[in-house]
Amino acid sequence: TPGVISGPTNPCGYINTGVAATYTIRKIPGALSYVWTVPAGVTITGHPGGLADDDTIITVTFTNAVVSGSKISVQTSGCNLSPLRTLTLTRAVPAIPVAVTGRTNVCPAFSGPSSTLSDTVIYRINKVANATGYTWTIPVGADSISGLTNTDTFIVVKFRSTFTSGNISVKAISPCGSSTIKYYAVSKLTAT
Question: Pick from 12, 11, 8: which is nearest to 24 by CA?
Fold first, then answer.
């Protein structure tokens, strides 16, 4: 029986991207060839070891048809076929971002009392497991400088003089779904 299959168990970052994932096993003494089997939604695109179907390495692409619990499998062939070695795939939704950091009181970001827009304010999160991107939302009275849907873990915002309070929010996204939204309250507080 082949040894452990090495490769990603979560296909979400690869689904419909055209980017190939690589799966490998160690060579088995006495094996004449290796027979790989992939489930629906997975296509073998190459054999980087140069041995065609007899390779210990495959590259695959994924479509949205791949489901949790499906398996990539391999067996050796000599005088007969060995038992299967399998690797179970799990479509994991991204986790919720842990924390948003950035200015909560945006009043000091304004250059002066007559400013119509604040200086830029940056809000950040750490990368989230299983995420391929992030969707940010900003409150009424704020403008995004860096964009609201992207792969960045930060957003650059300017606040208008009419802004009073609201939430910066972010969720992690992937082809397998999105996380719960993380909210971060911001306001324009003046000194009393």
Answer: 8
